[in-house]
Write a structure and sequence with these properties.
Rossmann fold, hydrolase, single chain, Bifunctional protein FolD, globular, alpha/beta, NADP, EC 1.5.1.5, binds 5,10-Methenyltetrahydrofolate, 3-stranded parallel sheet, 2 domains, 6-stranded parallel sheet, about 300 residues
Length: about 300
Amino acid sequence: MRAELIDGKAIAETIRHEVAADVTRLAAHGIIPGLTVVLVGDDAASATYVGAKEKASKAAGMQGETLRLPASTTQAELLTVVERLNVDPSVHGILVQMPLPSHIDPDTVIRHILPEKDVDGFHPVNVGKLLIGHTDGFVSCTPAGVIELLVRSGVDTRGAEAVIVGRSNIVGKPMAALLVQGRAGGDATVTICHSRTKDLAFHTRRADILIAAIGRAEMITGDMIKPGAVVIDVGMNTKPDATKAKGTRLCGDVHFESAVHVASKITPVPGGVGPMTIAMLLRNTVRAAERTLAVAAR
Ligand SMILES: Nc1nc(=O)c2c([nH]1)NC[C@@H]1CN(c3ccc(C(=O)N[C@@H](CCC(=O)O)C(=O)O)cc3)C=[N+]21
């Protein structure tokens, strides 16, 4: 058996077209959705991601802007920038790229972003709304993208055993909240595993849907997967590869070559969850813009 590939690139493309249609509809009301990405410092990987976000937002017809600040930017200076964006009516979405330099506290910065403009879904207000099941907040883009992948690939989550490996605030925890809630892409029985879990393989082998979000290259091997399971790989790691010009290549948290013979469906890295993250960011930004319209009509 060889698993069917879940084509995140293609599904993300479909969502980006849906977003572009929403942008056209908003234009009739004189609104151009605006996304401002703030990048502090010159981390090479971050610069690549930020460039991709700006390109994708422009391709969807939005106003995409990137503020590049030096690594020496103080926390107070960054908070001033956020406050300026908070009150700028042409900016509907604000994303401060992580990780930030070590002299800046990410939680303080996230709390300064207006929840209504927090298209990353990182603000405590948005995390709280997700947990309660209120749909007027923003959901973290990566777990929201995973749900879209499952739903649009015809995976029935209802009553399924879903096992998440990883308990981060931006993937593992919101992923669990989405899978357990009583709506499309939810109603699963959810287990969260992490670095202190005893006998990880015992849990992963029970999973009908296995979500790997650990951040460790190729840690989930085929022998840890239940035959026929759906495997979603959130990992974005690099590993040495002499055949590549850079000397490295991208790899996930799942050992693809062994997993592909056990799973029924699997996401590749690259071309799986990554492109979905950007598509969901665009969708959140359009929603932020739509909500300003709804407020103006009151
Ligand atoms: N405030 C904030 N929000 C984020 O959403 C955020 C962040 N900070 N910091 C970094 C991570 C990482 N991230 C990715 C987005 C797209 C791909 C992506 O499109 N990956 C492609 C390929 C990328 C490549 O080839 O290098 C793929 O998997 O096919 C990957 C990773 C968003 N992040």
